[in-house]
Amino acid sequence: MSEQNHPINTYSQNELLLQAEVDALKKQLDVLEQKVFAFESILRSELSNELVEVQELTVLYKKQKLAKKEKRIAQKQRGKNYTPPTSLKPLPKAAKVHVSEVDEKERKRLYREAMLYVHPDKFNMNEGQADLATEVTTKLIHIYQTGDLNALKDYHAHIFSGNTLVNIAEHSGVKVDQRSKGEFLKKEKERLEKIIDEVKGKYTYKVLTEYPEPMKFLDELKLYYKDRISKLRRRTRVG
Predict the structure, then answer these.
(1) Rounded Cα gap, residues 161 and 163, in angstroms
(2) What are the Cα distances from residue 123, in Å, to 172, 203, 217, 218, 222?
(3) What DSSP letter does each residue of 209-224 carry, written as one string?
(4) Region annotation Disordered: residue ranges (predicted)?
């Protein structure tokens, strides 16, 4: 059997081809992610105030909705004509810790950073991620409102450690285990192709590739958030 037709040689050639394909896909993914994530970062920076307010109002709306539901249930249990005593006082809010002006600035900085990191933006995130982000920001808002800087620092660190959300910008590798290198490379190729498809499936990628002026999308988002904030303010208005 000639050296050229030796099965081991052929297998090694296949591995080399697969490795070259994997390397090319990695480069393609890096370029795509840098382009898309940089664009998303600009959008979030320009919309930072709107993003924070929407999330705060969303949390407030859910709290009010839950309170109304609990009130209806309580009235049902006591009878349709039940009227709560007028002497009842609302429950006190969480005690607020006194903070200095310097600490207050730091507290606001940490709060905004964490809020923007987990905010469920409407141009990419799916419903599951949005619900999870709302849970995280509910706790974040509560800690911020107490004024406890140390507690906020701890939760800020917890959020940025990646323990609260699956960061869509990070993709874990495939373990080799006992598989052959060729099998591993096939799986790695499939994994990279899937991630590339996911990035290309983002609406922001569509904007970058199809809009003559991608930054015009920012105007669309500003209008969207203006309308969203207006509706949420009406829904959460008391009295």
Answers:
(1) 6
(2) 24, 6, 10, 11, 12
(3) HH-SSTTHHHHHHHHH
(4) 71-90
pTM: 0.62
Residue 143 counted as domain residue: yes
For residue 210, the model assigns a pLDDT of 95
* 103 within some domain: yes
What is the rounded distance in angstroms from the CA atom of residue 163 to the CA atom of residue 124?
21
Q: How far apart are CA 104 and CA 101, in angstroms?
A: 5
Which pair of structure tokens corresponds to residue 192?
């990279």
Domain that holds residue 153: 21-80+93-167+180-233
Going 97 to 102 to 105 to 107, the CA torsion angle's sign is: negative
Q: Which residue has the higher pLDDT, 75 or 22?
A: 22
Does residue 47 contact residue 225 with C-beta atoms inside 8 Å? yes
Cα gap 207→36, rounded to integer Å: 10
Let me know if 48 is exposed, middle or buried by CB neighbors in 10 A (0-12, 13-18, 19+): middle
Under 8 Å between Cβ of 110 and 156: yes
Other Cβ atoms within 10 Å of 176 Cβ, number: 13
